[in-house]
Design goal:
The complex is a heterodimer of chains A (468) and B (207). In chain A, helix 6 links the parallel strand 9 and strand 10. With 468 residues, chain A is an alpha/beta fold. Chain A contains 16 helices and 19 strands. In chain A, helix 6 runs parallel beside helix 8 and helix 13 runs parallel beside helix 16. Chain B is of the alpha/beta class and 207 residues long. Chain B has a single domain, classed as Aconitase, domain 4. In chain B, 31% of the residues lie in helices and 14% in strands. In chain B, the strands form 2 sheets. Chain B has a 4-stranded antiparallel sheet with strand order 1-6-7-8, covered by helices on one side. In chain B, strands 2-3-4-5 form a 4-stranded parallel sheet. The longest helix of chain B is centred in the middle third of the chain and has 13 residues. Chain B starts with 10 loop residues before the first strand and ends in a 13-residue tail after the last helix. The chains are: A alpha/beta (468), B alpha/beta (207). At the A-B interface, strand 1, helix 2, helix 3, helix 5 and strand 8 of A face helix 2, helix 3, helix 4, helix 6 and helix 7 of B. The complex binds iron/sulfur cluster. Iron/sulfur cluster binds next to helix 12 of chain A.
């Protein structure tokens, strides 16, 4: 029998164009996604070199980072944002690239629309000038976040020069408790393995908890792989993936779908394949998680106090002290009961329909507390339409939440949605870096959509398990 | 396009600037509001904009003793966070040509190589000695020598590491991946034609 191989090996080998003299592999990129922030400079470099786009049919574009969420009406209110969107339109037109702009009805955060349209498929290599490209690994793809020079490389050659990562298998065992979500699982994984624990690794997530997850939940987990230092994170394709893809716009149909299904299933890691490292996490022990610091590894269960730096390992102490000073939190203080100013539900981590449903389940139990600004931003126009069909906007509005147009919004605040001063924000996004949400002193606490909704209606950090 | 000959990066000799702290992310290196642009021009002046504003002149990048530095000395996991090439672009345009630290985030590292900027790591003890030496005597020349795999300062010569593939690219002047990738020619199309999804799974899979 042939040696058992991992998905990483199979997909890597299938896409290897050649080995490069420096030991890296020239890897063919099956799907290239672009957006307005990291692509204009790449097109400019291409133009300077007089090179065409090699496979224009394998690149798809959308606009997400700078799009305002109050109104998408053109011209966009911010002239800089309008200029960036126009540059993207021009580049796509000139090179024959499909653009999902607001008028298309399929605009949204790049990592939400790829899967939604069936562009993201198992066994593909995927690249996008955005670190959360790892999201697409939920479908059993190898998806790499890349820089702008590499966006240029992919446009010109449909290839990347990459070194094959090592592979770490992460099994999440047992069963999650009520009120514990995919977001809590990935925050627990990063807390355990550290924000640089994954450098040089691809993460293969598996075990009963991951297998029981919907594709949307798996996307939440894979999305934050990069926050743990792993550029790539994936789940082996299974029945759930096949069911997701059936009937999607860019998925094959008819007999081609049957052929695709066989290939997709075959790409999964073989039983008994080799891993460079294995980690097991007890899913039943995971509590709703909240970050207290300035990177996603600095989290605790909501019922735990903020750590005391002196009790942490040496390597984490300085960073923890800096974090507590910035976050204006005291060592040992409980997070429960901390007053929030803003609640943000959205982003490529938690801006899909199932996230909005979970948030709505909690939001209907009360009204947004006085003094709290609460925003719900669907991840795409498609998510928005489906949420509308279920009556979610009315429910959120009645509870005092603002219901917005799709985009990245307050995840990184390149549009008008920003924190002000040192506001404390309960957020479903993926980064709690200093200044990330648009105010240089703004403070972000990452948590699940249900936890953010609970914080919004109570006006303070709340254990969502008390409400469910 | 740069040719291999003038693209070789053997050593960087320059004054250094010490930026202490771990896990310094790309949002801090270049805050998102400066990404609202269609070119990288002018990013240099905004490097660490928010940190600098808050430090009110006390930030190492505003420290006159470090003015004109070409080497940035950093801590652990420098450049974590987003894939924005704006981060190394901003630092490059602020005058930095090499980075020395305890460790670097992967995408940041790759983005630097793509710009011909070496990121080398030192053992923690050596890094501390380098930082102290530069802080005591910022006028001195620090040398990042990729050929020898070392970083030298007044306090001594330390063994510096860098993944071999990236080191070779910088030494050989092949860090501009585009030129290398283009050399594959038709092999790219040939690989594409073996991938069933590229043809939309219209044909029965080839074995
Ligand atoms: S939602 Fe946030 S993390 Fe996701 S692509 Fe947009 S800015 Fe990046």
């Amino acid at each position: 029998m042939a040696t058992p191989r991992s998905l990483l090996e199979k997909v890597w080998d299938a896409h290897a164009v050649r080995e490069l003299p420096d030991g890296q592999t020239q890897l063919f990129v099956g799907l290239h996604l672009i957006h307005e922030v990291t692509s204009p400079q790449a097109f400019a470099m291409l133009r300077e070199l007089g090179l065409p786009v090699r496979f224009p049919g394998r690149t798809f574009a959308t606009v997400d980072h700078i799009i305002p969420t109050a109104s998408q009406k053109r011209p966009l209110a911010d002239p800089l944002a309008e200029e960036m969107l126009q540059a993207l339109e021009r580049n796509c037109r000139e090179h024959g690239i499909t653009l999902f702009d607001p008028a298309s009805g399929h605009q949204g955060i790049v990592h939400v629309i790829g899967p939604e349209l069936g562009l993201t498929q198992p066994g593909m290599t995927i690249a996008c000038g955005d670190s959360h490209t790892s999201t697409h690994g939920a479908f059993g793809a190898l998806a790499f976040g890349i820089g702008t020079s590499q966006v240029r490389d992919v446009l010109a050659t449909q290839c990347l020069a990459l070194a094959r990562p090592r592979l770490r298998r992460i099994d999440v065992t047992g069963k999650l408790a009520a009120g514990v979500y995919a977001k809590d699982v990935i925050l627990a994984i990063i807390r355990r393995l550290g924000v640089k624990g994954g450098i040089g690794y691809a993460y293969e997530y598996g075990g009963p908890v991951i297998e029981a997850m919907s594709l949307e939940e798996r996307m939440t987990v894979c999305n934050m792989s990069i926050e743990g230092g792993a550029r790539v994170g994936y789940v082996n394709p299974d029945d759930a993936v096949i069911a997701w893809l059936r009937g999607r716009r860019f998925a094959p149909s008819g007999e081609a779908f049957a052929r695709a299904e066989a290939w997709w299933r075959g790409i999964a890691s073989d039983p008994g394949c080799a891993y460079d490292d294995r980690v097991e996490i007890d899913g039943a022990a995971i509590a709703p998680s909240v970050t207290w610091g300035i990177h996603p590894g600095q989290s605790v269960g909501v019922d735990e106090p903020v750590p005391r730096p002196e009790a942490l390992p040496d390597a984490e102490r300085t960073s923890a002290e800096e974090a507590l000073a910035y976050m204006k939190l005291r060592p040992g203080q409980p997070l429960l009961g901390a007053r929030i100013d803003v609640a943000f539900i959205g982003s490529c981590t938690n801006g899909r329909l199932s996230d909005l449903r979970e948030a709505a389940r909690v939001a209907r139990l009360g009204r947004v507390a006085p003094g709290v600004r609460a925003l719900v931003v669907p991840g795409s126009q498609e998510v928005k339409r489906r949420a509308e069909a279920e009556g979610l906007p009315e429910l959120f509005r009645e509870a005092g939440f603002e219901w917005r147009e799709p985009g990245c919004s307050m995840c990184l605040a390149m549009n008008p949605d920003k924190l002000r001063g040192d506001e404390l924000c309960a957020s479903t996004s993926n980064r709690n870096f200093k200044g990330r949400q648009g105010s240089p002193t703004g403070r972000t606490l990452l948590m699940s959509p249900a936890m953010v909704a609970a914080a919004a209606i109570r006006g303070q950090i709340t254990d969502v398990r008390e409400l469910l | 396009m740069t040719t291999a000959t003038d693209a070789r990066r053997h050593r960087v000799a320059a004054r250094a600037c010490v930026l202490r702290g771990d896990d310094i992310d790309t949002d801090r290196i270049i805050p998102a509001r400066y990404l609202r642009c269609v070119t990288f021009d002018g990013l240099g002046q905004h490097a660490f904009a928010d940190d600098r504003a808050q430090a009110k002149g006390q930030h190492p990048l505003d420290d006159p003793r470090f003015a004109g530095a070409g080497i940035l000395v950093v801590g652990r996991n420098f450049g974590c966070g987003s894939s924005r090439e704006h981060a190394p672009q901003a630092l490059m345009r602020a005058g930095f040509r090499a980075f020395v630290g305890a460790s670097f985030a992967e995408i940041f590292f790759g983005n630097c190589v793509a710009l011909g900027l070496p990121c080398v790591t030192l053992d923690e003890g050596d890094l501390v000695r380098l930082m102290e030496s530069v802080e005591l005597d910022p006028e001195q020349e620090v040398v990042v020598d990729l050929e020898a795999g070392s970083v030298s300062c007044r306090a001594g010569t330390f063994r510096a590491s860098m993944p071999e593939g990236a080191r070779r690219q910088l030494l050989d002047g092949t860090w501009n991946a585009l030129a290398v990738l283009l050399e594959a020619g038709d092999a790219i199309e040939r690989t594409a034609s073996t991938l069933p999804y590229v043809g939309g799974f219209r044909e029965p899979a080839r074995s």
